[in-house]
């Protein structure tokens, strides 16, 4: 599984395979069963994750008890809930494994210590985070300016696997629509595809 991590790292560094292997030799990897809650909304985050396999759902529950899916984190994606801008440091989100997940698990408390030991790791992590932030900004801007049909089409173009990996009501929440609306959009898309064919 570390091969997945090494190949991902090589997108952000000129290190050789052997150097990447040495850098990841002590990286903790753990497997979590489907349904594992990695972080509860309201807790202070202590860990960060990189997905080698599996799918994590990031969501929040509002004051009325309604769940709102914010993101799905899958292979070769990382997740760190940043809370330094919150006075109490508590997470506004929960993280749950929707599938059995094999994850690199990092301790936020030892982040600076790791960077001091491996300066190249800090530069690499910064580049990874910049790419993630850019992708998130673009996705948010696209989401805000698009119709539900356009959001579904973008999903089918960029992350079609999610349609088969996550419950439809969570997918609908992620797209900002009701499950009934999602069902109608999928039917229209299927009819359109048949006409085009």
Written description of the protein model:
The termini are far apart. The protein has a domain of 113 residues: Jelly Rolls, CATH 2.60.120.10. It is built from 8 helices and 8 strands; from the N terminus they run H-H-E-E-E-E-E-E-E-E-H-H-H-H-H-H. The protein has 197 residues and is α+β, with helices and mostly antiparallel strands. The strands form 2 sheets. A 4-stranded antiparallel sheet has the order 1-8-3-6, covered by helices on one side. The protein is globular, with a radius of gyration of 19 Å. The longest helix is centred in the C-terminal third of the chain and has 27 residues. Helix 3 packs across helix 4 and helix 5 packs across helix 8.
Text of the CATH class of the domain at 2-114: Mainly Beta
**N-to-C terminal Cα separation, in Å?**
40 Å
By secondary-structure content and strand pairing, the structural class works out as alpha+beta
Proportion of strand residues: 15-25%
CATH superfamily of the domain at 2-114: Jelly Rolls
Major sheet details: 4 strands, antiparallel
Question: Could you list the spans in which at least 5 consecutive residues all have pLDDT below 50?
Answer: none
CATH architecture of the domain at 2-114: Sandwich
Shape type: globular
> How many beta-strand segments?
8
- Level of helix content? 40-55%
- Give the neighbour order of strands across the main sheet: 1-8-3-6
What fold name stands as the CATH topology of the domain at 2-114?
Answer: Jelly Rolls
Rg measurement, Å: 19 Å
SSE string, helices as H and strands as E:
HHEEEEEEEEHHHHHH
Mean pLDDT, as a whole number?
A: 84
Pfam family, one: cNMP_binding
Domain Cyclic nucleotide-binding: 11-70
Keywords: Activator
Protein name: Crp/Fnr family transcriptional regulator
